[in-house]
Amino acid sequence: MDTTQIEEALKGVKYPGFSRDIVSFGLVKNIEFANGTAKVGLALTTADPRVPTQVKSDVENTLSRLDGVTEVEVSVAVSKPNTPPPAAGGKQVTGPAQQALPGVKHIIAVASGKGGVGKSTFSVNLACALDKVLTENGRKRRVGLMDCDIYGPSAPLMMGVSQQPEIRGEMLIPVENFNVRVMSMGLLIDEETPVVWRGPMIMKTIQQFAANVEWGELDFLVVDLPPGTGDAQLSLVQTLPLRGAIVVTTPQAAAVNVARRGAMMFGKVNVPIIGVAENMSYLEAADGSRQYIFGQGGGKRTAEALETVFLGEVPLEPLLREGSDQGIPIVVSDPQVVASKVFLEIAERLRREFPV
Ligand code: ADP
What we know:
Elements: H1 3-10, E1 28-34, E2 37-45, H2 50-64, E3 71-79, H3 96-100, E4 104-111, H4 119-136, E5 142-147, H5 155-159, E6 166-168, E7 171-173, E8 175-177, E9 180-184, H6 185-188, H7 195-211, E10 218-224, H8 231-239, E11 244-249, H9 253-268, E12 273-284, E13 290-291, H10 298-305, E14 309-316, H11 318-326, H12 330-333, H13 338-353
Parallel strand pairs: 2-3, 4-10, 4-11, 5-9, 5-10, 11-12, 12-14
Antiparallel strand pairs: 1-2, 6-7, 8-9, 12-13
Helix pairs in contact: 4-13, 7-8, 9-10
């Protein structure tokens, strides 16, 4: 028995009301083991006196079951949160994760099973669409976009931002355009860095990256996840206090299978799937006829398989690609086209589902 094995066992202790464990939340400050006695020091920030009691007894129960442990001593340092937890339509649970991003009400991840389905395009336009619907409803708080796609960070290009984020103390200040605060790995990592080095980097840096951005007050933070369903994505999903995830897929069957695997990942960490959106659904000709270039029905089938809602179909739209390349999202440049309307409808749906 050693401290590593004790830490491993502590990963089985969940923070009350959360799917995440106390180790991944960074609450375990020290572990000692000698002569059969395991000593664990925890630091919690909570205003609820039941939380430390519950965590302490869960730790005691877990460790006393381990072979070689005869005694368990748990000390808990409790501090009161500085900021009141944000109110959010009765769905709010307070916990360390929320305190990590105290001014942010709802964090929504955008995921896909593989690259190239338009996940970044979707994230960027969803962020701009959320700003529009919130502004129309008199909200003055902002929307944020966190581009965690280390393999192909495209938010800076699509949002027309390129300046290095300012650093204040230890905090990164997001850059802003179209009313959306943007932070992207693309603004931080050197383009020359080979992609193979970025994989391991994600684990270490993303947690810091997520915690060290001065978002200020946000109603929604849209998180563009790296494509895929591997460990990097999973660790990221665990790091962020997500309200839910949107899965983006294209209509063909192969894309559906990868999206499904992606969705299973969220099940593992108890992040609800808000819905499935289909991108590149069809191409509309001038006479209104539709060509289903990549097949049909993949998004709906994925939504059914995941027992979640189908959020809508974004058509293939040349203006969308041009806008992305020019750094003006289509929702901003051409809000009247069908693709923009779909983004705005999805944003409106989120606004209703997650009250601000
Ligand atoms: P991902 O983030 O999934 O890798 P991107 O968002 O970078 O995908 O999109 C890949 C490419 O497809 C980009 O050039 C983008 O402009 C284009 N694209 C995405 N969605 C559409 C669409 N609905 N119509 C036309 N082009 C699109």
